[in-house]
Specification:
The chain is α/β, with parallel strands linked by helices and about 475 residues long. The protein contains 14 helices and 16 strands. It folds into two domains: about 110 residues, Urease, subunit C, domain 1 (Roll); about 325 residues, TIM Barrel.
Amino acid sequence: MTTTRSYWCETAWLPGGWADGVRLEVDAGGFITDVAAAPQAGDAERIKGAVIPGMANLHSHAFQRAAAGLTERRVSEGGDDSFWTWREVMHGFVTGLGPADTEAIAAQLYVEMLKAGYTSVGEFHYLHRDRDGAAYADPAEVSHAVVRAAERAGIGLTLLPVLYAVGGYGGVDPNAGQRRYMLNVDEFLDLVQRLSKQYDGDPQTRIGIAPHSVRQVPAAPLADALTGFHGMETAGPIHIHAAEQIRDVDEHLHHTGARPVAWLMDNAGVDCRWCLVHATHLDAGETSALARSGAVAGLCPTTEANLGDGLFPFGAYLTAGGMWGIGSDSHVSVSPMEELRWLEYGQRLITRTRNVAAPGTGGSTGARLYGDATGGGERALGRRVGAIAEGYRADLLVLDTMHPQLAGRHGDTLIDSLIFSGNANPVKHVLCGGNWAIRDRQHADEAAIADAYRSTVRRLMAAL
């Protein structure tokens, strides 16, 4: 926890636009208490460069960072590898992980996120049981490991314990990997309550819930879980996978008679507390309904591309006024700029036009993308992040304006160049919750964290 501090920004991107000479006051809890024009730094710590809000990563499966690159060999005879063949490999990988492994992998991932420009993360966490599917003595043991990793890295965390009630549509039994995820509703709500009590008042940790999907959580347990959670927390975030694959839509139609997002809208009370992750395959009615609901579409373009999911109807969703944010999901990439770039590029490819996200003639595509993603991330994570304004977390990125990628850029052109100009990372410093998490592109504890990660991954690879 930091003491009260003052910072003077050479130039900063505020909600009303760019401003030179900005003084920020930050309290001991890491919140901005005042933003004021100041021609001189005075007694404030001087920040040289362009200061922008940190990005929220609204969808993460931390353990999958260690499996990135391990699923890029064809496994099906007919050459029709898919999300479903990848899923079997991933369930197999998870059988070897213990709590210490999860912590080591998550800590490495979270340092990588901070260096890339993510300052908060929504961890969609479903490793609840031991390797054999038995309960730990402390049901929250692996959850605590994730929180410790976030604390060590210094990233803001919205922990989203996952409810995984059945192995699939029709109530099928779980496979070997899925056994580690399974909880009944009472066990799930007990876990959420334990975590909520333990981390109550921690400004860097928020607790929400994540019913995995309607495939894994049928109507009755979903309703019971939502009722129980609303009794604990009326405004807590709720995340769910939805319509990621066409097969998801087809199977949901077969088992319920409705498309998955339409079914959620009609049966689950979807509103601004919700984040529908992926929501890739929507019809026009679902696109409009999702936008009207106030829920956030959680888009993960690099993972969705890696898995062959398809493309979200982004242009139509923007036209409808929908909220959205980005996540790195399986962490084949840990870069908010790449997520935003490929979100836009996917739409350019299917529409054969340019600047799909630009707000109008002369409008900045990059600024629209970055600004929308920070706003959607704030809503999805249930944390005051994503703006340099009073009452928000002091989660800030300092861009190196001397970096060749940003040379001569000013204003919104800085953001356009940050996203659409090269693959270097001009993020030089990162302030997270009022503390410097990254200084000169380095994390104070990154060598030890990387050593622990390497040791963990070598052991896991040797066991495959």
